[in-house]
Amino acid sequence: MPGQEIDLVSVRLYEDWLPELAPPWLQKDRGRALLSGWGQGLDEYASLTTTGLLARWAALAPEDALNRLGAERGLTRYPGESLEVWRTRVLGAWEFWQWSGTEYGLSGALSQLGYASAIVPVWTYDTARWSEFDVYIYPASRSYDGTPEERARILAIINKVKPAHTRLAAAYYVGFGPLTWNPSGLTWDPPGQVWGAPPIQLWPEQSYYPNPTGLRTFYVSPSGSNSNPGTINQPWQTISYAISQLTAGDVLRVLDGVYNEYVHINRNGTPTNRIVIMAQNKWGAKINAAGHNYGITFGGSYIDVIGFEVYGAARVGIMSWTYNPANVYQSNRVLWCYVHDIIPPCDSDGGAGIVFSTYSENCEAAYNVVRDIGDYAAGPCTWIHGIYAQGYGAIVRGNFVQRVRGYGLDNWHRPKNGYIINNTVVNCRYGGLSLGTDVAGHTVDGYLVANNIFALNGSYGVQEVAQTGVNQFLNNLNWGNPTNWALATSTHQNSINADPKFVDYQASGNGNYRLLQSSPAINAGAPVSQLPDYDLDGLPRLRGAPDIGAYELQEV
Ligand SMILES: [Ca+2]
């Protein structure tokens, strides 16, 4: 073969080499076996040393050794990650590895995954829990992609590097940027940024958002077809068609997209087999009801409508609709919806964001955002409301309502024994809350109104009108309304009349209505029945005592 011969150092195994070095008296069979066995041991040590050396030399290690080194340090290579980026992360891991078991090490570990972080000891807001910590993660070189694999990766490294005696209480991913520490408290949004999306809770993994398993589950997508079977891979196309296929106990999951239809739910669930019609992702399924009077109407009982964005209807966003005493609807619920830009004319037919009609009983509206109901610029109108309960036993809790022409929360016609708990109602043209009726022989009483904020509304904070009896008003914050209290037949207890100190109040509606740490509403709520389980961001409700309003400050 032409060309230069290159002398290579020949690599020989001790197993072969030692017997050759031995003197003649050790060259017989038993001597060679002894030396060969000794050599095998040496070969094994040499191999381990080489591997170990290569593994420590992340800068020089070949790809497979780098993978091994990463695994040893709790890192895995992302699909498609270049060798150089991967190598840099593995090299950096040495830093946090040295510091594992410390908060600094934990930050370093998350940084190696591509995230910035803040680690908050739980005892700062709950002195009974001294060895737990929360982790807030936000994007740096990497954004959380929402996959279970990435969540597992993040949680695994936290648990691997955390101090041994501590426990991860909660982990949140704050996708819209770093948290801002300021003298008055921790806020989700940088100053000036408005209405950021809620943080994603990674741990505990149980989510606030309902995840029901029905007797049967069906799917709808704007890109589906009504001749499909309604499976996740072959979804139906319209919500209205899907509803025609439902029976008690069914769950309909509506995939992301805009649905240009008026949805009427002419079905019935039962107390134990409710019908659930839900956006697969909160506010991901949008009902554009432009050209219709209504967005979604209930024509039966025991139905849940969850997580839709509804807008554009001429009269009402979402309504449980019966005015027939022989056809009472029971226990319908509207949860986690966003109802906005419903612009009814100011006439006696009126309109609202959410309505439970006169013979809709024991219905619930919880964790909804309702805003811009009626033409705000046109001034007050007493026929247009945010959430309007007309029947017995309504539960209205944990909602945020703003910029409504009439009352944010109205209760008129046949309401009785209802609950109005932990709502925030601001900047409504006529008032925050009204209770009353002019129905002959009916008195509005037995209401529990607790832990609400009614602030900066046009005329009234809370008003009892016409035929009312004894209602309970506990621990409400009424502030900045021309008349904060206008009760006719009841009294109010433990009320606060002070600026609630929103993070960033904006009359335009695009503010941040969470509470500053200096807010008088913090821990000022009463532990009443029907207290919401979550705040409006899906965060835990009880941090010490409940806060007043729809949001619960997580750090106190
Ligand atoms: Ca609290």
Describe the structure.
The chain has 556 residues and is α/β, with parallel strands linked by helices. The protein folds into 3 domains: 14-55; 99-203, GMP Synthetase, Chain A, domain 3 (2-Layer Sandwich), CATH 3.30.300; 216-515, Pectate Lyase C-like, CATH 2.160.20.10. Helix content is 17%, strand content 30%. It has 7 helices and 39 strands. The chain has an 11-stranded parallel β-sheet with strand order 7-8-11-14-18-22-25-28-31-34-37. Strand 4 and strand 5 (185-187) form a beta hairpin. Helix 1 (14-21) crosses helix 2 (29-56), helix 3 (63-72) packs parallel to helix 4 and helix 5 (103-113) runs antiparallel to helix 6. The chain is elongated. It starts with 13 loop residues before the first helix and ends in a 41-residue tail after the last strand.
- Return residue spans where pLDDT drops below 50 for at least 5 consecutive residues: 181-196
- Spatial separation of the terminal alpha carbons: 80 Å
Small molecules bound in the structure, each named once: calcium ion
Oligomerization: single chain
CATH topology of the largest domain: Pectate Lyase C-like
* Largest sheet, spatial ordering of strands: 7-8-11-14-18-22-25-28-31-34-37
Integer count of domains = 3
Q: Determine and state the CATH class of the largest domain.
A: Mainly Beta
Q: Strand content of the residues, in percent?
A: 25-35%
Average pLDDT reading: 88
Q: Given the helix and strand composition, which structural class is it?
A: alpha/beta
Output the number of helix runs.
Answer: 7
Shape assignment = elongated
